[in-house]
Amino acid sequence: MKKVFVLAAALMLFAAPAMAVISGSKHDFTQAPYNATEICVFCHTPHGADTSVADAPLWNHYTTTQTFTTYTSASLDGTITSPSGRSKLCLSCHDGVTAIDAYGGATTGTPMATGIAANLGTDLSNDHPVSVTYEDAANGGTDAGLRAADAAVGTSVTNGGVTLPLYTDKVECASCHDVHNGGAGQPMLRASNANSALCLVCHNK
């Protein structure tokens, strides 16, 4: 029995860094100015969750209702829609309008401060497109400048040892950013973008 206890304790010590990556990050709302008593509560709740949200477990935040201006370009082959799925959830704080502390049934509060890079606003025309289909030529798309998606179409793209997820064959905010800060790059990137390494996972240039 003692051996089992020691083994369990050791496993917990090794697992702790992976479990605590939100702590101390920009998504740790126990820090000022919010000083919440729980790290996870701004987005998740064990009871009374919004079950209409399929893209995040036990969703606890008010979801943005803003209308967004999306990126457009004559060279864009993918179909782009208004932010949906995970991207819409990210924009429920990063739209600069919806309150960050609108959670647990609240719909108002303090929106993200203006003048900081994380405040994207509702005009996304100068940002990387999100909720855009990944039109790689290898899987029936038209964009030869994109690397082939991994074997299970619509799930991920891999290059240089880095794998980025796709969501129903779409690029979303979470394709490049890890909301739980488990990647190696900042700001909350899934991997470092040194020498454009993150960009080159998808873009074959």
UniProtKB/TrEMBL annotation:
Signal peptide as annotated in the record: 1-20
Gene3D superfamilies the record matches: Flavocytochrome C3, Chain A
Keywords (A to Z) from UniProt: Signal
Keyword Signal part of the UniProt annotation: yes
Protein name: Doubled CXXCH motif domain-containing protein
Residues of the Doubled CXXCH motif domain: 172-205
Pfam families per record: Paired_CXXCH_1
Keyword DNA damage annotated: no
